[in-house]
Specification:
The protein is α+β, with helices and mostly antiparallel strands. The chain has 19 helices and 21 strands.
Length: 599
């Protein structure tokens, strides 16, 4: 049988030809060993003339299949059409069909993006096999036995097909492990038609190095014809290319993840950060949403590298990054930009949101950066700075430069120069305000050495001794700014021996504060029934409020703080417009009096 056409052979000894009398015209060809090429046998064929069949000589074993193919090519059917031409035409069409298929498979091999690759595989299966639907399941990375749905084409029901299944629990698990395409009954929720083959689906296992990495299910053909052996052959070719390409993409993804992460801390690399920030910046611009960055600098990184081992510092950094990652959301990202510096990207986060994130981050890393070396104890000194797009800059370089400037300015802030970060609120209050006798010198116009410890910073910081009436006018200025702040958000905390006065001052500019402006008044006494929106009274059993007064005001584009120790008709103390000092003192007040309000 050659291509489903029978070819009959008759085996005769050479002596039968020598005797003559045989009608050779009944044979299409004569095949003989080269030893039979003797003159008496060749003379027999010469006598037959044109009616003699062609003679094919061979050496060794008889080439029966080759002779049969030659006979089919040269034989003429009854209708006069040459079989050889039809055969060549069929083989040419098959060649060009396979060449087109391999071109599609090459496109599959060149797809390096997983989503695009799955779409290309689905298109190739549907186009080459004429299927009305296509579903692709891929093996789950943690468990290769679990198949998860990855791509769908056509009208199907996910609930019926199953978004996931376990390979070992299916009826045709053995067929999948063999790696050959097979037919199975369709899972459609309708009665099977009389012809079962019309109700079958073609399953194509995706096998790579004898391991099943996926499964493709092709629904019925559009023309409702059954899948043939030729269809299975084509499906296997596509499946082999698809499996190899999917495995290559998975490897590239793993390599990319490894190369995009810092090997010491497992934070992302600076290259990945630049690409990720540009994508988030594009989304923030398009949808007019905020985007914030937080830069984390280890102030004593160089010192620790000199005094301890590099491996110990790397371990402390890794613990710090892990603590930061636990606080972040799934959409947030931390990357290492320098050996001692990191950057955190916070999508959908404005200025006040970044400040709240700073508080959480500072608490998270407070006790994780310890290092023990040669009997001594060391610790990382993390320093956080935030910047918001587009408020502080239009690209990563601008935001980075602004954060560097903020970092340098914060180093000069009283918060850090006086080491107030780790102190309690009232201890920090006493450091800022100083002793009462200092103000006697101030009222006389003499220089107070203690006050020179705090840089005035062009008037942003300073000590005062004022009449109480003037002090209340300063508080009125704060209340007026709160009332006229527009849509900008802000928070005010006022505390003192007479909270009713603060209430009257803030309500004098309107019974309702603007949206996003919250006012908290803290005191030992006073009415708690403040009939005003966004204004809340908090009773605190704190005797220090009988002699000390506080006004803290923090907004998106500025800050102000008053720390006063009041006498009868005179108030002395410290005031500042340093936003880092105000924000830190406000955080301490909120923790001390359990003020749960945020921005």
């Amino acid at each position: 049988m050659v291509r489903e056409h029978p070819v009959e052979f008759e085996f005769l000894p050479p002596s039968q030809l020598n005797g003559g009398g045989m009608d050779l015209s009944a044979y299409s060809a004569v095949a003989a060993s080269i030893e039979c090429a003797r003159p008496e046998i060749l003379e027999v064929f010469r006598r037959e003339g044109k009616s003699a069949p062609p003679v094919l000589f061979f050496r060794g074993e008889p080439p029966l299949r080759e002779v049969a193919r030659w006979v089919l090519w040269t034989d003429f059917p009854e209708d006069g059409g040459p079989t050889m031409e039809r055969q060549l035409l069929a083989e040419s069409l098959e060649y060009y069909s396979l060449a087109s298929l391999y071109q599609q498979c090459l496109k599959i091999m060149t797809s390096l993006d997983k989503e695009k690759l799955l779409a290309q595989i689905t298109d190739t299966f549907v186009r080459e096999l004429g299927a009305e639907s296509c579903i692709i399941w891929l093996a789950s990375p943690p468990d290769s036995d679990e198949m998860m749905i990855a791509s769908v084409r056509g009208v199907i029901s996910i609930d019926r097909e199953g978004s996931r299944f376990f390979l070992s629990q299916t009826e045709w698990a053995e067929s999948i492990w063999k790696g050959m395409p097979f037919l199975a009954p369709s899972a459609a929720n309708r009665p099977d038609p009389p012809n079962r083959e019309r109700a079958t689906s073609l399953y194509v296992p995706l096998v790579f190095q004898e391991k099943a990495i996926g499964l493709v299910k092709l629904g019925e053909r559009v023309d409702r014809k059954p899948f043939s052996e030729s269809d299975r052959y084509i499906a296997r070719i596509i499946g082999d290319y698809a499996a190899s390409s999917l495995k290559t993409v998975d490897r590239l993804v793993r390599i990319e993840k490894i190369s995009l992460r810092d090997p010491e801390t497992r934070a992302y690399s600076a290259a990945f950060l630049a690409d990720y920030f540009e994508k988030e910046r594009y989304k923030a611009t398009r949808f007019r949403r905020p985007l914030s960055l937080i830069f984390l600098a280890i102030e004593n990184f160089a010192f620790l590298m000199e005094q301890t081992r590099e491996s110990l510092v790397a371990g402390a950094l890794a613990r710090t990054v892990e603590a930061v990652r636990k606080v972040l959301r799934d959409s947030d990202l931390i990357a290492r930009v320098d050996p001692g510096r990191f950057c955190i990207v916070l999508p959908e986060t404005d200025y006040f949101g970044s400040m709240l994130a700073l508080r959480r981050l500072r608490k998270a890393v407070r006790d994780v950066g310890g290092i023990r070396f040669l009997g001594g104890e060391f610790a990382l000194h993390p320093f956080f700075v935030s910047a918001t797009y587009p408020r502080d800059g239009n690209d990563f370089q601008e935001l980075s430069r602004l954060s560097e400037d903020k970092y340098l300015r914060q180093q000069m802030s009283p918060l850090h120069r006086l080491r107030l970060v780790e102190k309690s609120f009232w201890d920090a209050f006493d450091v800022l305000v100083g002793k009462p006798e200092y103000y006697d010198l101030l009222r006389k116009g003499e220089e107070v050495p203690y006050f020179t410890r705090i840089r005035q910073d062009l008037g942003r910081n300073g000590h005062f001794s004022l009449p109480r009436e003037m002090f209340f006018r300063i508080v009125e200025s704060v209340a007026q700014d709160v009332a006229s702040g527009g849509e900008a958000r802000g928070i005010v905390i006022a505390a003192g021996p007479r909270p009713e006065i603060f209430k009257q001052i803030f309500l004098s500019y309107g019974t309702e504060a603007p949206p996003g402006r919250n006012i908290y008044i803290v005191g030992q006494s006073g009415s708690t029934r403040f009939d005003a929106k966004n204004l809340m009274y908090m009773a605190a059993d704190d005797e220090r409020l009988m002699e000390k007064e506080i006004v803290l005001y923090l907004k998106e584009n500025g800050a102000y703080g008053l720390f006063a120790a009041g006498r009868q008709e005179e108030v002395c103390g410290f005031n500042t417009a340093d936003e880092w000092l105000v924000e830190a003192m406000m955080e301490k007040v909120q923790e001390m009096y359990l003020l749960q309000g945020n921005f």
